[in-house]
Amino acid sequence: MDFKQIEAFINVAKFKSFSKAANFSFLSQPAISSHISILEKELKVHLFDRSSKEVLLTPAGESFLKFALEILEIRDNAIYTLTNFNETINGNLKLAASTTPCNTLLPSLIEKFHNMHPSVTFDIVELNSTKIINNIIKFSFEIGLIGEPVDDEKIESYELTKDELVIISHPSFNIPDVIDIPSLFKYNFILREKGSATRKTFEDALIKNGYNPSQINSCLEVNNISTLIQFVRKGFGIAVVSKQVFKNYIFLGLIKESTIKDMPLTRSIYLIISSKRSLTPTAKAFFNLCKKYFKVD
C-alpha cells in the first residue's frame, strides 16, 4: 500500500467514477484502475461496487475511507511539521546543571532565552557533574552545564567561563583570610557528595600539592548547596564552594570567606551536549545563546 494507491481510492470514492478520478489526478484511467486493483488485492476486500453508471463504495470501502483520509492528513501534517522543523522554537527544553552553574549562570540565561522565546518551557534538574554526563550520554537531557572537563567521545564540551572556589566558615572560627593547608586540616569539613565537580577540584588540588584527601576531617556530606551553607552558618564545619553562590551571606556577616595559601582553586564551567544526537531547534537555540553570551567560538 502506498500513498498513490490511497489517493486514487479517495478520488474514485469522491467522484464515483474512475475516469473522473483519472482526470482529476492527471493520470490515465488504466493507472487508476491498477492502483485500486493492487489495493484490493493487498487488503483482500472489494472496495467498490462497479455499475455502468457509477462506482459506489462497498461497506468495506466505507470503512476504509475513514482510515484513508486520516492517513493522508497525518502525512500532510508530518510534511508540514518537518518542513518547518528547523524554524520552530517551542515546547519544553530539558536541562541539567550542577550546583554552581544552576545557581549562578542558569537564571540569567533562562531569563534572556525566555524574553526571546516566551512560549518555551523548561524542565531544569540540579545534579552533580558525573550524573549529568551520564544522563547526556543516555539522551535524558539535551544540554548540561557542569564544573569539570569531559574526556569522552560521546560528549561535546564547550568552556563557558572560569569559576573560583574558596573556603567558607562561621565567623566565630576566626580563620584568616589566607590559610595554609596544614592548618586547614584542623577543621571539620562539610563536603559535597562524591561526583561533585567542586569536591573533585578541591581533592585534585590537594593531591597536586602533595596531600592526601583522606587527611580531610569530614563531618558531613551533602548534595545541596543551600543545605551546605546552612550547616556552615550553624558552625558544624568549613566547606569549599564557588565564590559566586554565597555573596549575600558575606554581605550580612554570616559567613567568612578565606583562600588557601599557594593553592588557587580555579576551575571552568562547561556546556556539554551529546556528540551522538542532533539537538532539537529549541535546544539548538539555547545552545547558540550560551555560546554567544559567553563568546565561545
Please outline the helices and strands:
Layout: H1 3-15, H2 18-25, H3 29-43, E1 48-50, E2 55-57, H4 59-83, E3 92-97, H5 99-104, H6 106-116, E4 121-126, H7 129-137, E5 143-146, E6 155-169, E7 178-179, H8 181-184, E8 188-192, H9 197-208, E9 217-222, H10 225-233, E10 239-242, H11 247-251, E11 256-260, E12 266-274, H12 281-293
CATH topology of the largest domain: D-Maltodextrin-Binding Protein, domain 2
Give, in order, the helices and strands: HHHEEHEHHEHEEEHEHEHEHEEH
CATH superfamily placement of the largest domain? Periplasmic binding protein-like II
Q: What's the number of extended β-strand segments?
A: 12
| Average pLDDT | 90
Model description:
The chain has 297 residues and is α/β, with parallel strands linked by helices. It folds into 3 domains: 3-83, Arc Repressor Mutant, subunit A, CATH 1.10.10; 92-161 and 269-293, D-Maltodextrin-Binding Protein, domain 2, CATH 3.40.190; 163-267, Periplasmic binding protein-like II (D-Maltodextrin-Binding Protein, domain 2, 3-Layer(aba) Sandwich). It is built from 12 helices and 12 strands.
Briefly say what this structure is:
With 297 residues, the protein is an alpha/beta fold.
Keywords:
297 residues; D-Maltodextrin-Binding Protein, domain 2; Arc Repressor Mutant, subunit A; 8-stranded mixed sheet; two-stranded antiparallel ribbon; 23% strand; alpha/beta; 12 strands; 3 domains
